[in-house]
Amino acid sequence: MQQRVGAYAVVVDEGRVLLAHWATRRRWTMPGGGIDPGEDPRDAAVRELREETGYDVELDELLGVDSEVVPGLPGGERWHALRVVYRAHVTGGALRDEVDGSTDRAAWFPLDDLADVPCVPFVATALRLAGLPTDPLTH
Questions:
Q1: Residues in contact with 21: Cβ distance below 8 Å, sequence separation at least 6, in sequence order
Q2: pTM exceeding 0.85
Q3: What are phi and psi of 43, to 5 degrees?
Q4: Whole-angstrom Cα distance, residue 83 to residue 8?
Q5: Residue 137: band (very low, low, confident or very high) from pLDDT cuts 50, 70, 90
């Protein structure tokens, strides 16, 4: 089993949440990703959000740490995801899709409409850490 440590951010603005589309799983997830060796998790979250969404963000607070064993893709190995989750807000940049990365799209979704959005379970976990309702998420 592989272990991956990542940093992610919950970005909510006017009742909408910013999500990134995970290309290989074809589901939406929180923007963020792997922490490079020696990189501070806060710096990783800011870097990953810029890479995946085009936005510059400022981190507001640490929301918590999530741990999950994720099943592998068909023929793939399971892996242990350890995720550092922050709350953040946009300070600049413009929404754009990532090119040649693990995500292929970024978009804002109304929190009330998430039941219709195919999300990975981590989205509900991150929203719960942020104190936001997760009732609409049944995926």
A1: 27, 28, 29, 103, 104, 105, 106, 107
A2: yes
A3: -65, -40
A4: 7
A5: low
